[in-house]
Amino acid sequence: MFEVPYTLPDMVWALSALTRRCTGSILFTFAPYTPLLGAMHTVGKVFPRSDRSPAIVPIAESDLRTALSGFDGWEVRRSGRISSGFYKSHAMELVKR
Questions:
Q1: Contacts of 96 (CB under 8 A, 6+ apart)
Q2: What is the CATH number of the domain that holds 67?
Q3: Entry pTM
Q4: What's the total number of domains in the chain?
Q5: Is residue 55 situated within a structural domain?
Q6: What secondary structure letter does DSSP report for 39?
Q7: Does residue 1 lie in a domain region?
Q8: Confidence band for 3, pLDDT divided at 50, 70 and 90
Q9: What residue numbers bound the domain in which 18 lies?
Q10: Is pLDDT of 15 > 90?
Q11: Distance in angstroms (rounded) separating the CA atoms of residues 73 and 75
Q12: DSSP track, 41-81
């Protein structure tokens, strides 16, 4: 499992590369877009780079599902939010058909 702090196109590219190497399933997490996280991400861009926390790019689940639907022979099976204290993430599993 790995956390992907990339833009949606970068994430789709990385997952596409993994589908060519995997034969069963791929489990990954991403930062889900929420209005609050989107606002915090926008406000954070105001601060100098040296004062920013590590970059995360919130991804809308619907946009990701749309992009992954183009992966021939793969489908999203399990998908759900992960929450522990302030940590919020979304886990998703791609499974080869």
A1: 19, 22, 23, 24, 25, 73, 74
A2: 3.40.50.150
A3: 0.78
A4: 1
A5: yes
A6: H
A7: no
A8: very low
A9: 8-96
A10: yes
A11: 7
A12: HHHHTTS-GGGSPPP---B-HHHHHHHHTTSTTEEEEEEEE
Strand pairing category for 25-30 and 74-84: unpaired
pLDDT of residue 49: 65
* AA letter at 37: L
Q: Which of 80, 89, 17 is nearest to 59 (CA)?
A: 89
pLDDT digits (tens, 9 = 90+) for 27-83: 999 988 877 777 776 777 777 766 665 567 889 999 999 999 999 999 999 999 998
31 in any annotated domain: yes
One-letter amino acid for residue 96 of the chain? K
pLDDT for 7: 86
What is the length of the chain? Answer: 97
Among 39, 41, 34, CA closest to 81: 34
Residue 25 backbone phi and psi in degrees, to 5: -145, 160
| DSSP 8-state secondary structure symbol assigned to residue 21 | T
Classify residue 3: in a domain, yes or no. Answer: no
Residue type, 44: G
Type of residue at 74: W
